[in-house]
Each structure stands twice: as structure tokens, then as C-alpha cells.
Amino acid sequence: MEISNLPISPSIRSKLLSKGYTSLSSLSSISPSFLAQELSVKLEEAVEVLRAVSDTTTSKSAHTPNGIIPGAVTAWDMLSEEQMQRHISTGCEDLDAILGGGIHCKEVTEVGGVPGIGKTQLGIQLAVNVQIPVEYGGLGGKAVYIDTEGSFMAERAYQIAEGCIYDILDKFPSNSREFLSCKERLQVNNFLAGIFYFRICSYTEQIAVINYLENFLTEHGDVKLVIIDSVTFHFRQDFDDLAQRTRVLGGLSLRLMKLSKMFNLAVVLLNQVTTKFTDGSFQLTLALGDSWSHSCTNRIILHWNGNERCAYIEKSPSVPSASAPYLVTGKGIRGINSNFKRARIM
Amino acid sequence: MMDTEKEDFKSRLAPDVTPNRQLPWLTGIELLSDTNQNKHFLPTGLEGIDALLGGGLRQGQVTEIVGPSSSGKTQVCLSSATHVVDRNFGMVLYLDTSNSFSPFRISCFVNQLHPSLPKELKETSLQTIMSNIYCQSVFDIFALLDLLHHVETTLKHTVKLGGSKLCLLIVDSVSSVIAPVIGGKNSQGWCMMASVGVLLKRIAYEHNIAVLVTNHMVGGENGTLKPALGESWKGIPHIRLLLSHGTGNNRGTTTVLKHTLMASGRTANFVIGN
Description:
The complex is a heterodimer.
Chain A: H1 10-18, H2 32-39, H3 43-63, E1 73-74, H4 75-83, H5 93-98, E2 108-113, H6 119-129, E3 142-147, H7 154-171, H8 177-185, H9 188-193, E4 195-199, H10 203-219, E5 223-229, H11 233-237, H12 242-263, E6 266-271, E7 273-278, E8 281-286, H13 289-292, E9 298-305, E10 308-315, E11 323-329, E12 332-334, H14 336-345
Parallel strand pairs in A: 2-6, 2-9, 3-4, 3-5, 5-6
Antiparallel strand pairs in A: 7-8, 9-10, 10-11, 11-12
Helix pairs in contact in A: 2-3, 6-7, 10-12
Chain B: H1 3-13, H2 28-38, E1 41-42, H3 47-52, E2 57-58, E3 62-66, H4 73-86, E4 91-96, H5 103-113, H6 119-131, E5 133-137, H7 141-157, E6 166-172, H8 174-178, H9 188-207, E7 210-215, E8 217-219, E9 225-227, H10 230-234, E10 239-245, E11 251-258, E12 267-271
Parallel strand pairs in B: 3-7, 3-10, 4-5, 4-6, 6-7
Antiparallel strand pairs in B: 1-2, 8-9, 10-11, 11-12
Domain RecA family profile (chain A): 84-273
InterPro entries (chain A): DNA_recomb/repair_RecA-like (IPR016467), HR_Repair_Mediator (IPR052093), P-loop_NTPase (IPR027417), Rad51_C (IPR013632), RecA_ATP-bd (IPR020588)
Keywords (chain A): ATP-binding, DNA damage, DNA recombination, DNA repair, DNA-binding, Nucleotide-binding, Nucleus
């Protein structure tokens, strides 16, 4: 777009800039004689300049295979990529089913709910499940856990990792050679070593760690999941200027979207709830305001349905809204039916 | 006016008009016949919305869809992309700011298009349609401006070879990239928002493209929701539609907030297929 990048002599370039021609588009429809008159140069030199302009613009569009913009991919190519994509299991088969296989990579998923519903449990479960080796149907990747509230318990992560390994070995009891080599990797300590933990104590640290994540993820290319637990905590109490908060959060979410797309990983944000006065009554909605609700690709709301915990998909571009019950057990997040299966075998 | 008077008028105006100006002066009759012949309606694929808009998205105009979260904005964009390519209007460029472009969902829409086709034809039709929808992710306003400039330059210099030409440009959602920069003490953000608006309108008008953008809603007075991006953005789209949740899972209601040709306030129901 810039005149300064054209392969022309510096004297002609300075004449162009002093006459006000700064972009290629301003030169796109001038005749050579007019340009020669404007710049007080010879006609041949003006023709040279215009040829350089047209060469630059045509070479730019020639480099793009589709002729529109560089980097655009057709939906057909994306479809084949998407079909080969693995999803992160949540531990509960019903929830995986309504999510279309699990948590999607390259997307930002927001999970919100009342305190005690199991958000942190789900976060830790995902951090463990993302590490399930590829041979057992998982992604074989690592996780980044950004803790803002201090609710991550290493002992609980140990329990959940143990439960996950126990269930995998139960499901795949075969002793063939490839499974044997993976079995060595199925150690609880390996799973715990695969979770990179950041403890954040203020909103500035939160913004800083998200800015730093790009460098971190370039170094650690096997990270497939970033969890922020919770994204709300520091933004609820310290911010006086709500408009600025909205702007900062908007920028934050765009950066997370970019990270998820660039590094092909899933971003899961855990959110708290607040009450909102709509239609004459107070209702529970996710915190951080209306603008934030547009910043994620998917939204899952965890709520109580009587005595049961339920997950409801409120927003998703590819799956319809649906609800699924889940349990928080000693081994982690599980579906309703998995317990019954165990009981029947016994 | 007689022809000689017209020529005289034009020649008197000519010195004041910069020699770079490419767009010629047109009379009302010429504009009307151009509109009738060239400015087609591109279907969104959703009957209620197409009927409300008098056929669909107008070429040469910027249509904005506003709505609360999960009201169907992305689905309308995906459906429009599918139907426009299916009816051979040309290529579609989808600029995505929230990783919501779902190829799987597009394939669902394609499968609904011609349910009676045999399997092999369906597969080739799927590939043809999806190969004409281009998607690019945009995560900040500078990248968006850059991309739009590039699109404009490419369109100016492309000679139509009989292949597909860009006919629909979708930005989902334009408010995600603009909202973080506007507000605050600096007025730079408002300038950039205006630049985006002017660029979109220029691309739409000069190259006969329909532009579809989505916007989100923010809290207004008394707890009601209003479209984001403020008063300055209101004038930029030619047509504004408000989507709201309907009674069922895939149902919704559209209201016309602003239109260049018809009265606002008209509503219609629409259903998004599975």
C-alpha cells in the first residue's frame, strides 16, 4: 500500500510524497503525462513509476491462490480439517455427546455457574483429559491452568488423574505392544507434570499472563488446552470504570481467540454468576456484562435441576441447545450412567 | 435538460472535479435502470427474513444484524453464505472474529438445500459450494482495515475471467473488533470505526457487493438492550435488522430498525433449519 515500498529512485519518491501521493491507490488511475507534469519529471520516468505500481499490485494478488486475500481458506478445506479434529472429553458421556464430541479446539468455550456446581472440578478434569494419549482416543497434549481464585488443589488433581487412568485401563484392557508403550506414560505424576500452573493475583497480572501466553505457547507447542479459573474474579471488585472494563475484556477475549486459532488449542473460561433485572424479575446470568457474552464461541451454563447437576449449552455455532446431567464423583466428572454400569458388573 | 445543456453543465463542473475521479455523473434514470438490472437481492435462505427485506440482501448496500447473545446472528450469516453460493451469485468472503465459522454447520445447510438429489450429486454439490466460501479470521481492527484495503485493491485490479467474483462480504462480528477501541479519552477509536464503515460502504457500492455485518447489544437505560457501537455507527449500515429469541429452539423474530426503502418497525418470524 505504501509508496515507500516501491522500487523507484529516492528523488522521485520524495517528489511523490511531497505532492501528496502516499498510497498505491492514489496512483492507480493517473495517466503518465499527467504524472510527468505533476512531478516535473520526464515522461519515461513517469511511465516507470506507474509500471512499478501496477507490478506491485498485480504481484500481490497473484500470490494469493484464490485472488481475494492471503490466508483465506475455503470452507471445504476447513471441513476436512475439522473432521479430523479430536475433541477434549469432559468425562461425562452425555455432556460429550451434546457438545458434539467434547470441547472443541480452535474455539473459546465459556463455562459458568453458581458456586459449588463444579466449575473448578470440570476445569481440572479437562486439564487431565487433554493429556490422554492419542492411542486411547485423547489429544495427548498438555494444559495451562491459570488460577485467579486459588481454587486449584493439587491433591484433587492427583485424585482425578488417578481416576482417569483407572478408567482408561479399564476400558482398554488389551496388552498389545503399542498399548504397552503408552502404559508407561499413564502415570499420575506424568499427568500432573503436564499441567502448567499460573497463579494470578490481580487483573494486571491476568492481562499480563494472557499477553505472555503467546511466547509461552510458541515454546511449548504441545499445549492443547488453556483454562482460566475464573476469568471474572479480579474484574469484579477492582474496577471502577465499567466502560473501561468492557473494553479491556473485549481486547482480552480477542487475544484468546487469536491464540486458540493460531496454536490450535481449546480455551476454556470459567465464569461466575450475577443477578440481573430483566422482564420485571431478578434472574441469574453470567457475570461481566452483556458485551462479554458475545466474546466467546460457545457457552455452557452449569445449574441445579432439583438435586441433579445439569449442563446446558446456551450458545454454539455448530450444535443445537441441549442439556445433559453430570455428576461430580471422587474420580472426577462422570456421567449419570457410568456409575450404573459399574454396579451391574459387580 | 437538453443534451447540449447537459454537456455544458458537465464541462463547467469538470475543473472542480479532481482528474482522478473515476465515478461518472449519472442521471436519476440511469441510476434507476442500473438498480433494476444490476442490484440483485441475495437470498439469506430464511424465508421470513427474505420476505421482510423484499428478496434478501441488496447488492451495493450494507446490512447489519443486531441481536442479543445466541439469537441467531451467526446462523443467518452461515445460511446466507450457503444460499448465495448455491444460486451461483458468486464467491463469499466470511471474516470471522470469534472462531464461530463452522464448516460442519454449512454442510448441514447444504444438505437441506436439495434433499431429493442422489448421493453422488450431493457430494459434488457440497464440494462446489464449500469451495466458494472463503473464511479468514480477524482479531483486531488494524487487521480488519488491512484486509478490507486488500480486498478493495484486488477487486479493482481483477479482470473478470468468467469465474466467480466476490458477491457477498460477511463480517461476523464487526462490533467485537471495534468495541475495544472506542470510548475512553482518545478519539482515535471513533476515527477507525468511521474508516471501517466508509470502507465497507465503498466496497459495497463500487463493486456491487452485498455486505452483511453483525453487531451485539449492550445495556441501555432502564435495563433495556440497545445496539452496540453507539450513535455514530447508526448511520453507516443502510439496513438494520434486530433479531430476538423466539419461542422454540430455532425460531426467532426479526424487526426492521432502519431501512432505506421501507418503513421501520415491520416484523417477521423466521425458522433456522436443523
